[in-house]
Structure formats: structure tokens, C-alpha cells
Write a structure and sequence with these properties.
- The complex is a heterodimer of chains A (304) and B (225).
- Chain A is an alpha+beta fold and 304 residues long.
- Chain A has helices at residues 2-16, 19-23, 30-68, 82-94, 107-118, 144-154, 164-206, 208-216, 221-252, 280-301, and strands spanning 70-75, 99-104, 131-137, 158-161.
- Chain A has a four-stranded antiparallel β-sheet with strand order 2-3-1-4.
- Helix content of chain B is 33%, strand content 26%.
- Chain B has helices at residues 40-47, 70-77, 95-105, 114-123, 139-151, 169-184, 196-203; strands at 2-11, 14-24, 29-33, 55-60, 63-64, 80-83, 157-161, 188-192, 209-214, 217-220.
- The chains are: A alpha+beta (304), B alpha/beta (225).
Chain lengths: 304, 225
């Protein structure tokens, strides 16, 4: 409880500031500008890492949901038996519980599917192409093993593909991308802290004379540290705000992906996710606060 | 006020002070003299805890310096005014802010009204220089400003390390006069100097004791000065 109130007091002091305490640190310096730039650049990158993390998360969920609820039946049969086996498959599906709907892929749809590989003039009617049946499952889903057995009995040319074979690696890949995005954000925060620590240490070393005078006249370490902490925190906040803003603008102007670019669809922010980057500047300020405070108190402890 | 008992300080295996015994009573005026490198500055730094004794006991303002926390040291320094030969100012702040700094860091800036501050500034003869930056002042003016900063908190103890080292004789006399006036106000003053002429002048105006640092020891000097 005491630590919490001490933290609240620290934050209040930081927000209120102390003009004289602040003014003991020279008003300009390359380290302060370096901090602004670093925070801005890191915030810009964090926006993209966040977008990647959120988008891959959505992608993983979408693939997982959509593919989990669809099944494809592929029918390969001699020309004379194709329609009979197709009817048998439809009959089996209609009498199986857990199936919401099923539809036979039309010649036109199959032509569109094959068009990228064989061109628009493919004589699909004359080719021995398997017929495809798309099955939409109910939430409860059918008994896959039972369905597979019934299909093999009623329509020997039918093969049930529930997408598990290629769905799992896709979902895994998307989840790993999400983890990578989250890890990148943590890495960016760590790198920001490291760079601000170095900048703060440089500022403290450059202001050795000021610190010496302050110690001589009875200034406590916290008083001296506060002047540096406030300066670096404010700089980091401003830099991160600008970097986040630029990152958001860049996200807005990302080329929009059409249906054909299915993988790219959804990269970026959607809905309330646009609000999440607003957390980046305060987060950068918190990182700067603790990094500078730690660096300052460690440096001051070495000064008599 | 200040009590040292068998106090010593070593650095890098070299003994700089050893077996120092001294009791400084409140309101007294001490000179500390000795050749360059004898340890005068080390002695003063022990007195304001910029250094910690490696041997013996040092008590300042009734506090044993051993085991003092950094925050306690900061508190004690607010009751000690220190004047260095090189003054040490924050060069980008004007003289008024520099002189007020001890009040500011202790949160007592409002306790000294403008009138009292102006009295202090005119006492050291710097009324016309308050908006100047430290590098714009002469050595004598900087030394007087350092003295004003040292006394702005009305400290109990004033330590001056070669305060007239860079000054001509006329300015040195002015600084000494200010220190004597402070002593007459009841402040305890310790001045480290190798300027025997300055000591003789002070002895003619105020009751002083002279300590001589030699062979790492502090001895009370005789009347031969």
C-alpha cells in the first residue's frame, strides 16, 4: 500500500513538475533529441508490430473458425457413374445429422477455380475433373468417421476432406506470427528502455558539474533524478506520440487488398483495434520513466 | 558542532589523514593551514561527508557519520555552507537562481522573502549581478556569490576551502571580512588556507584558532604565526 502511494506521489510529482528542478538540467542537448527520435521511431515500428500481431490473430481465428466448419467431398468416378455417385453423396449428406447445408460446385465455379492455372477457355465439360461438394457443418458437427464409412459404402469414388491436414499448419503459422508480433513489441520496449538508459547516462555524465553542485547544497538523489526523469519521460511521450501518429497514418494508406489477395485482407487495424495504438505513447513514457529513474539513481549512488 | 576522534582517511593504500582529534565548539573560528597536498581539502570533505573516514569517529552536528544514509547526508549538508576555491556554479542558471539553489532543493524557497534576499545580496555586494550568468562574473564576484549561496540557508557551520586562493589581496580582505561577520553572528567557521597574511589579519579582528596539518596529523599551531 505504501509502495502504491509512493508510486502515485511519484507520478503526481512528475506530472506537476518543478520548474526550478527542471531548469538545473541544461535546456537543450542532443541526448534529449535522441530520446525523442528513438521513441518516435520505436513507436512507429510498434504500430506495425501491433498491426501484425492483431491481424495474424484475426487470421488464425478466422481460418480456425471457417475451416473448422467446412468440409469438401471430392468425387472421382467414370463418366457414366458420376451423377449416380453425386446423388448418393447428397443423399448421405441429407440424412446425416450435424450437417447444415451442402452444395455441389457448379461447372462455372470449377472453371473459375481452375482458371489461374489453365486459362479461361478450359473445356471443363469434356475433361474428367472430379466433382466437388462443399459441406457446411453445424456447430455440433457430424460424426466424421461414420460419414466417411457411409460415403465409402454408398459412393466409392467419394473422398471426404475435412481440411485438418492443411488447416492445422496454417493456423499454427498464424499463431506463431501473432507470437512473433507480440515478441517484437516486447523487444521494441526493451530496445527503447536500453536506448533511453544510454541517453540518460550520457546526459548525467555530461552534467556532472550540475550534479556535484546540487549534492553540495544538499539536494537529495530523488530531487536530482526527477529533473532528468521528467525531461526524458516528456521527450519519450512526445516522440512516441508523433511516431504512433505517423504509424497510424501509414496504416490508413496501406494498399487495400481485394478478395483475390485473401491473405493480405485484414492486415491493419479493424474496428476498436484502432484505439489500441493510443496505448503506445503512455507505455513509452512509462518505459522512459523507469529507465531514466534507474539510470539516474544508479549514477547518483556513485557520486559522493 | 564537530567532533573527530582518532579519525583517519586513506585512499589507494595511502594514508592522507590519521589520528585526528578535534572538538570544534559552536561559534568558533578556525583556520586550517599547511602546505599544498597536506590534506586540508580532505579534512574539509570529511566535515561535509563528501568523504567518509576510514578510521576513527567523526561526529557532525551531533550525528555520527558512520552509517548515515545518503538522504541523511543531504539533510546535514543543508546545515553546512561550503565555499570552494573554484566556486562551482550551474553555469546556465543566473546568479539569483544559483544563490537560491540551497533553498530550492530543500523546498524552503518561500521562507526567504525578497527583502532578506536583497539584504544578503547587497551584503556581498552583488546586487547588480543577479541576472548575470556565472561565467560573466570575475573571480572575486564568484567567490562572494559562493559565500552568499553558502549562507543563504543560515547554516550552523561554514567551511571554506582556499576561498581567497584566486583573489588579489584587496578582494581577499573583503571575503575574510564577510567570514568574520558571519562568525560574529554566531556561525562556526573553518577556513582552509595557506595564506598566513590572511590568518594574521583575522587574528587581529576576531578570536581564531589555527590548526596546522603536517605529516597526516592535525596540530594546534602556536603563537608563532
Amino acid at each position: 500500500m505504501n509502495r502504491l502511494s509512493a508510486l502515485i506521489n511519484n507520478i503526481r510529482d512528475l506530472m506537476q513538475g518543478d520548474l526550478t528542478a527542471d531548469s538545473v538540467v541544461p535546456p537543450s542537448g542532443y541526448t534529449a533529441n535522441l530520446t525523442t527520435f528513438t521513441a518516435g521511431a520505436m513507436a512507429f515500428l510498434a504500430v506495425f508490430a501491433l498491426a501484425l500481431s492483431l491481424a495474424t490473430g484475426r487470421l488464425a481465428d478466422r481460418w480456425s473458425d471457417e475451416l473448422a466448419r467446412t468440409t469438401t467431398i471430392r468425387i472421382s468416378a467414370p463418366e457414366g457413374q458420376m451423377q449416380a455417385q453425386l446423388d448418393a453423396v447428397i443423399n448421405v449428406l441429407n440424412t446425416t445429422s450435424g450437417i447444415e447445408s451442402s452444395s455441389v460446385m457448379s461447372d462455372e465455379a470449377q472453371r473459375r477455380l481452375l482458371e489461374p492455372w489453365f486459362g479461361p477457355d478450359l473445356p471443363i465439360e469434356t475433361l474428367p475433373i472430379p466433382r466437388l461438394v462443399e459441406v457446411i457443418e453445424k456447430d455440433s458437427g457430424p460424426d466424421m468417421e461414420g460419414l466417411r464409412l457411409r460415403l465409402s459404402a454408398e459412393a466409392p469414388g467419394a473422398v471426404l476432406d475435412d481440411h485438418t491436414r492443411w488447416r492445422r499448419p496454417l493456423v499454427n503459422a498464424a499463431q506463431r506470427l501473432r507470437t512473433l508480433g507480440t515478441f517484437s513489441i516486447l523487444l521494441i520496449m526493451g530496445a527503447t528502455a536500453a536506448m533511453i538508459t544510454l541517453a540518460a547516462q550520457s546526459a548525467l555524465a555530461a552534467n556532472g558539474q550540475v550534479i556535484s553542485v546540487l549534492r553540495l547544497v544538499g539536494a537529495r538523489d530523488v530531487y536530482i533524478a526527477r529533473a532528468f526523469v521528467r525531461r526524458f519521460t516528456v521527450r519519450a511521450l512526445l516522440g512516441a506520440a508523433v511516431g504512433t501518429g505517423l504509424g497510424m497514418v501509414a496504416m490508413v494508406f496501406l494498399p487495400s487488398a481485394a478478395e483475390e489477395g485473401a491473405f493480405l485482407t485484414g492486415l491493419g487495424f479493424q474496428g476498436w483495434h484502432w484505439l489500441i495504438p493510443a496505448l503506445i505513447p503512455p507505455l513509452a513514457a512509462i518505459v522512459a520513466f523507469w529507465a531514466t529513474r534507474g539510470a539516474a539513481l544508479r549514477a547518483l549512488a556513485r557520486i559522493s | 558542532m564537530l567532533h573527530l576522534q582518532e579519525a583517519g582517511f586513506s585512499y589507494g593504500g595511502r594514508e592522507i589523514l590519521s589520528g585526528v582529534n578535534l572538538d570544534v565548539a559552536p561559534g568558533s573560528f578556525y583556520f586550517l593551514t599547511g602546505p599544498s597536498g597536506a590534506g586540508k581539502t580532505t579534512f574539509l570533505r570529511l566535515c561535509y561527508q563528501a568523504l567518509m573516514p576510514t578510521k576513527g569517529v567523526v561526529r557532525i552536528l551531533d550525528r555520527d557519520v558512520r552509517g548515515l544514509h545518503r538522504e541523511d547526508i543531504a539533510q546535514i549538508r543543508r546545515r553546512i555552507g561550503v565555499v570552494h576555491q573554484d566556486c562551482q556554479f550551474v553555469d546556465h542558471m543566473n546568479m539569483e537562481d544559483n544563490i537560491r539553489m540551497p533553498l530550492q532543493v530543500s523546498g524552503r524557497n518561500t521562507e526567504l522573502d525578497d527583502r532578506s534576499f536583497q539584504d544578503l545580496i547587497s551584503w556581498v555586494g552583488l546586487s547588480a549581478h543577479m541576472s548575470a550568468l556565472p561565467p560573466e562574473l570575475s573571480s572575486g564576484e564568484r567567490q562572494r556569490a559562493a559565500l552568499a549561496r553558502a549562507v543563504v540557508m543560515s547554516p550552523d557551520l561554514i567551511l571554506a576551502d582556499e576561498p581567497t586562493g584566486n583573489l588579489d589581496w584587496e578582494m581577499a580582505q573583503k571575503i575574510l571580512t564577510l567570514l568574520i561577520e558571519l562568525n560574529k553572528m554566531g556561525k562556526t567557521v573553518i577556513v582552509a588556507t595557506h595564506d598566513l597574511q590572511l590568518i594574521r589579519m583575522a587574528k587581529s579582528k576576531v578570536s581564531t584558532r589555527v590548526l596546522r596539518l603536517a605529516n597526516n596529523k592535525v596540530q594546534l599551531a602556536g603563537v608563532d604565526l
